[in-house]
Amino acid sequence: MRKFFTGLAITASLLGASITAQAGPVLDDIVKSGELKVCFDAGYMPFEMKSKAGQFIGFDIDMSKLLAKQMGVKYVPVNTAWDGIIPTLLTGKCHMINGGMTINTQRNMRVNFADPYIVIGQSILLNPKLKGKINDYKDLNDPQYTITTKLGTTGEQAVKRLLSKAKINVFETQSDAVLEVTNGKADAFIYDLPFNAIYFAQNKDKIVHLDKPFTFEPLGWAVAQGDPEMLNVLNNFLRQIKGEGTYDRLYAKWFESDAWLDQVQ
């Protein structure tokens, strides 16, 4: 596999030589420790999940493992609760967040983002009794409807910003939130399109999917502020895997096939 670090100031350090003065603190620690510690919150299909065998799998996991391999270091997963994932990064317990994090201004004030690696949006999983009655997110902006979503996510932000008239219930996990709809205790679940599409495929008799995203959400890898060298590495890595076709193969594996579902069910 081609070495995408060629031409960067840190090339020699990542190949085993001493770290150069031009490398930032994150890269310095990765090289010295021989580990790439990556934060995520397992349970976000198909980005990061825990398999029945107890292994972490998913689109983000595969990309992080590939990045670590090209760096010549060990991949170390750091599974953490979503509401504490940025503090975990900022306290140095991981080197980067690769966990389906949407780039937005509020987060960008605390962390730096690499270029977006995928773009998604919010969609709606609907109680079947509302099929035909609710055709758009705007139709849910009414006090008679109860909407669920996951705490601390862009889904929660979207609901509070766009559907302020509705009753909103937030949950610690997306699984608990969507169960409120499938169990008839809520009218709609709003969350990221990839998760909703997969959930719908598994529960077509219990739920309706309004699959046209109503928000624009680029996802990006996050690092602590003040380390442009790490961002340079991540952006070059992304360009490389997209250019050589590796990204498309991983995308097809996790988004265009459901063969992996047997591993998590």
TrEMBL record:
Residues spanning the signal sequence: 1-23
A Pfam family matched in the record:
SBP_bac_3
Q: Please tell me one Gene Ontology term that the record gives under cellular component.
A: membrane
| Limits of the Ionotropic glutamate receptor C-terminal domain | 35-257
- Domain named Solute-binding protein family 3/N-terminal: which ranges? 35-258
Q: What is the lineage of its organism?
A: Bacteria, Pseudomonadati, Pseudomonadota, Gammaproteobacteria, Pseudomonadales
- UniProt keyword list: Signal
Which InterPro entries does the protein's record reference? Iontro_rcpt_C, Solute-binding_3/MltF_N
Q: Does the keyword DNA repair apply?
A: no
Gene Ontology MF annotations: ligand-gated monoatomic ion channel activity
Q: State the family named in the UniProt similarity comment for this chain.
A: Belongs to the bacterial solute-binding protein 3 family.
Task: Report what the protein is called.
Answer: Amino acid ABC transporter substrate-binding protein, PAAT family
